[in-house]
C-alpha cells in the first residue's frame, strides 16, 4: 500500500461528507434544532480537516502515475486546480463552522449571519469538491467523460496550486514571510492550547473556563494561519518534497487528531461548567494532556523536517 491508495480511500470523504453535512444542516434549520445544527457544524469542521490529507495525498497519486502513458497529465493538472479551489473554500467553511460552534457556547444560539455564511460557503465547497472529484474520476474512466476528450485536449497550463506556489517562491520575501506568519500562527495556537490545557490539568485554578473560552478564537486563528501558510509551503516545494517524507506524514496525522481534539473544548458541556477553583473532570484532563502531547508532536515533526527524512 502506498499514499496513492490513501488518496483513493480519502477522496470520497469530502463529497459524501458534505452531502451528509449539508443535508443535516438544512433539516436543522427547517426544524430549528440546535442539536442538529451543532452536529452538522461539527461534520463541516471534520471534513475541512480531512480535506487537507486528501489534497496532499493527491500529489502521491500524481507521482505514481507519472510514467503511465495512457493517463493524461493535462487532466491531472485540471483535477489538481479544481481540488485546490475546492480546498480553499472547504477550509473557509470549516473555520466558519467552528465559529458557529464557539458562538453557540457563548450565546446559547448560533447567530443567523453565521448560519447563512456557513450555508453559502458549504454549498460552494460542495459544488467545487464534487467538480474536483468528478474530474478525478475521469482520469482513469474515459467512459464517464462528457464529450470527446474535452479536458484532455485543453491547452496545458500549469495547475493553479503550482502557479501560486511558484509565485511565492519567486518572490524574494515570499518564503521567509510565510515562515514568519507560520511561526506567529504556531505561537498563537500553542499559547492558547497551553493555557486551556494546563488549567484543565490543575494549574491556574482561580481562572474559570468561561474566561479561557474567550481565547479559543485566537488559537483557531493561529491554526488557520498555519494551515494557509502550510499549504503555501506544500505547493511551493517540488511535488515529491514533503509527501515522500515520513515526518511530514506523521505531522499530517497529528494535525488531524489534534484538530479534532480542539472540538472537545468548543463543544462539550463538561469543561464549560468549570468555575474558579473547580477541579476538571477526568475526561477534560485526558483531553488536555493529549492536546499538549499532540501539538508538541506537530511542532516536533515540523522542526524535524530538515533532519529526519530528506526535506531541505
Ligand atoms: C481535496 C482534494 C481532492 C479530491 C476531493 C480528489 C478526489 C479524487 C477522486 C474522487 C478521484 C477518483 C478516484 C477513483 O477513480 O475512484 C481522484 C483521483 C486522482 N486524484 Fe484526486 N482529489 C483531490 C486532490 C488531488 C490532488 C491535489 C492531486 C494532485 C495532482 C490529485 C491527483 C489525483 C490522481 C492522479 C488521481 C487518479 C488516481 C488513479 O486513478 O490512480 N488529487 N481524486
Outline type: globular
Number of strands: 0
Question: Over all CA atoms, what is the radius of gyration?
Answer: 21 Å
By secondary-structure content and strand pairing, the structural class works out as mainly alpha
Mean pLDDT: 93
- Cofactors and ligands: protoporphyrin IX containing FE
Count of alpha/pi helices? 13
- Can you summarize the main beta sheet? none
In short:
The chain is built from 13 helices and no strands.
Describe the secondary structure blueprint for this structure.
Layout: H1 3-10, H2 13-31, H3 34-64, H4 73-107, H5 112-140, H6 160-170, H7 174-200, H8 209-213, H9 216-236, H10 240-243, H11 246-267, H12 269-272, H13 282-304
Helix pairs in contact: 1-3, 2-3, 2-5, 3-4, 3-11, 4-5, 4-9, 6-9, 7-9, 7-13, 11-13
The chain binds protoporphyrin IX containing FE (HEM).
Describe the structure.
The chain has 312 residues and is mainly α. 77% of the residues lie in helices and 0% in strands. The radius of gyration is 21 Å and the shape is globular. Bound molecules: protoporphyrin IX containing FE. Protoporphyrin IX containing FE binds next to helix 1, helix 3, helix 4 and helix 5.
Amino acid at each position: 500500500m502506498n499514499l496513492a491508495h490513501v488518496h483513493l480511500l480519502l477522496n470520497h470523504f469530502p463529497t459524501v461528507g458534505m452531502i451528509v453535512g449539508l443535508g443535516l444542516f438544512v433539516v436543522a434549520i427547517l426544524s430549528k434544532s440546535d442539536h442538529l445544527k451543532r452536529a452538522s457544524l461539527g461534520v463541516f469542521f471534520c471534513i475541512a480537516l480531512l480535506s487537507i490529507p486528501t489534497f496532499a495525498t493527491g500529489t502521491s497519486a500524481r507521482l505514481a502515475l507519472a510514467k503511465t502513458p495512457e493517463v493524461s497529465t493535462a487532466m491531472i493538472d485540471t483535477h489538481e486546480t479544481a481540488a485546490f479551489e475546492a480546498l480553499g473554500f472547504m477550509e473557509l467553511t470549516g473555520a466558519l463552522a467552528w465559529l458557529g460552534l464557539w458562538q453557540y457556547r457563548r450565546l446559547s444560539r448560533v447567530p443567523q449571519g453565521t448560519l447563512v455564511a456557513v450555508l453559502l460557503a458549504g454549498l460552494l465547497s460542495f459544488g467545487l469538491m464534487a467538480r474536483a472529484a468528478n474530474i478525478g474520476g475521469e482520469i482513469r474512466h474515459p467512459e464517464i467523460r462528457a464529450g470527446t476528450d474535452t479536458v484532455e485536449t485543453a491547452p496545458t497550463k500549469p495547475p493553479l496550486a503550482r502557479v501560486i506556489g511558484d509565485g511565492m517562491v519567486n518572490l524574494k520575501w515570499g518564503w521567509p514571510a510565510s515562515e514568519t506568519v507560520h511561526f506567529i500562527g504556531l505561537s498563537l495556537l500553542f499559547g492558547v492550547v497551553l493555557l486551556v490545557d494546563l488549567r484543565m490539568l490543575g494549574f491556574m485554578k482561580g481562572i474559570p473556563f468561561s474566561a479561557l473560552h474567550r481565547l479559543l478564537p485566537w488559537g483557531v486563528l493561529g491554526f488557520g494561519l498555519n494551515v494557509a501558510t502550510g499549504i503555501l509551503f506544500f505547493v511551493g516545494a517540488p511535488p515529491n518534497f514533503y509527501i515522500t517524507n515520513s515526518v511530514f506524514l506523521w505531522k499530517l496525522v497529528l494535525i488531524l487528531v489534534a484538530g479534532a481534539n480542539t472540538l472537545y473544548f468548543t463543544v462539550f458541556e463538561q469543561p464549560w461548567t468549570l468555575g474558579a477553583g473547580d477541579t476538571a473532570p477526568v475526561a477534560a484532563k485526558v483531553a488536555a494532556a493529549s492536546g499538549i502531547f499532540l501539538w508538541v508532536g506537530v511542532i516536533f515533526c515540523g522542526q524535524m523536517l530538515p533532519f529526519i527524512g530528506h526535506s531541505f
